Amino acid sequence: MVIRRAGGKDGRPDGLDSDLPMGGLSPPRATHYQASTGRGCSPTFLLVSPRTIIFPSRTTLRALRYLFLPLGLGLVLASGLGGCATRTPMPGWINGASHRYPGSRYLIGRGRATTEEAARDRARADLSGIFEESVALVSEMTQSSTQKSSPPDGGKSGGAQSASAESHTADQHVARIQIADVWQDPHTRTYYALAVLSRQRTGQRLRREIERLDQATRNYLQTSRDTTDILRKIGATEQALDAQRERAGYRKALAIVDPAGGGMASAWNTGQLSTELTSLLKQVRIVARVSPDAPEGFAMAVNDALADAGFPTGPDGEPDYILEARLEVQDFGLQLGRYWQRGILEITLKNASDDRARGSRHWDIEVSAQDHAVARQRAFDRAASILNGELRDTLVGFAQP
Questions:
Q1: Are 230 and 398 in contact (CB under 8 A)?
Q2: Rounded to whole angstroms, what are the CA distances from 114 to 91, 184, 189?
Q3: What is the widest separation between alpha-carbon atoms in the chain?
Q4: How many domains is the chain partitioned into structurally?
Q5: Quick one: 181 and 79 in the same domain?
Q6: pLDDT at residue 164, rounded to an integer
Q7: Does one domain contain both 113 and 172?
Q8: Do 50 and 110 fall into the same domain?
Q9: Does residue 99 lie in a domain region?
Q10: Alpha carbons 31 and 12: distance in angstroms, whole number
């Protein structure tokens, strides 16, 4: 800080009348100073060394007023000098490592934006991207291992189910991310945010989830072995496969959080479980029955959906189950320049031996087109699309408690 003398030639502050009578007393020596920090903040203050004052006159009081009023203002401005000198410096984590949150103990993410909220969101996204990359990798590996054993068009593929489970795993990590620090650049007004995730606490949670899913897998496979109901075997095996697909996401995340931990290898292989499930599906014989008034081609669409789901169809052997399918579509005519078709698609699975229903589900259908024939075809295509995409999961779901 540089201090220089300011004011009049005789040492009095600017604005003080040098000829002002002092009531017979010698005026106090007043020196006017200006302090500069070199940062554009230069408050002015007075240093006054008064001499003896005995019962000052009114004129003297006027003179003192001119001396001490600037002094009070100077003290206020001088307090601002300290504020200018104590600006928060740029944290080291913006361009380098964080000493408070070292990489050996924390996963970190950084974000910057013109608003604090946006900077926080970007920091979380930067950190969560680590887990999203692991989700994409595990999904690709799982899809590759199950490609040969999964039905070509039977509902959701193994890779799609794996991606869904692992995305849920990544979302759980994002919810636990904390914003450890936020800093604003005083010149650009840009906000910087630091997101952190404890490796130790996150690793403990991941291990607990992996152990939970392993125990669930054991229970599901035990149920599959103990039951004689083929549909329950399929349902339990499907649940075991889903548990292991979810576990794959946790294991990959654990390998990131704790690279030295090895990721806790699984006792089961998702590819083998998928192959076992496909083999069980081929053991089930389901015969489709459609209502007499069903649209032309609807029975063929149901049988095609069963085949694509992995269930064998045909007249050979006695069926285990009967799949009743019903499609009813109503023509609502021309409305607002379009022909509307609305209806319902319903399926019910029953035991062939005792006609007991194992489950039922329905879907609403609503389509339109500018041409009447096109609208009717769209209603039929919509029903076929639902069967191809959801029949397998629906029938397997009937076996799950």
A1: no
A2: 18, 9, 7
A3: 132
A4: 3
A5: no
A6: 52
A7: yes
A8: no
A9: no
A10: 6
DSSP 386: H
Domain limits at 336? 285-397
* Per-residue model confidence (pLDDT) at position 277: 92
- How far is the C-alpha of 273 from the C-alpha of 237, rounded, in Å? 7
Q: Are residues 241 and 327 in the same domain?
A: no
Shared domain for 133 and 7, answered yes or no, is no
Residues 6 or more apart in contact with residue 294 via CB below 8 angstroms: 325, 326, 327
Beta strands in 161-304 (DSSP E): 178-184, 191-198, 286-290
Residues 131 and 74 in one domain: no
Q: Which carries the bigger pLDDT value, residue 250 or residue 82?
A: 250
First to last CA, the chain: 78
Please write the tens of the pLDDT for every residue from 252-281. 889 888 887 766 889 999 999 999 998 998
CB 224 within 8 A of CB 236: yes
Say which residues have a Cβ less than 8 Å from residue 265's Cβ, sequence separation at least 6: 251
Q: Do 136 and 243 fall within a single domain?
A: yes
pLDDT for the residue 18: 44
DSSP 294: P
Q: Is residue 96 part of a domain?
A: no
Q: In angstroms, how far is CA 109 from the centroid of its own chain? A: 14
- Highest mean pLDDT among 143-152, 190-199, 390-399 belongs to 190-199
The predicted pLDDT at position 33 comes to 44
| Alpha carbons within 13 A on the beta-carbon side of 157 | 15
Cα–Cα nearest to 158, from 103, 227, 237: 237
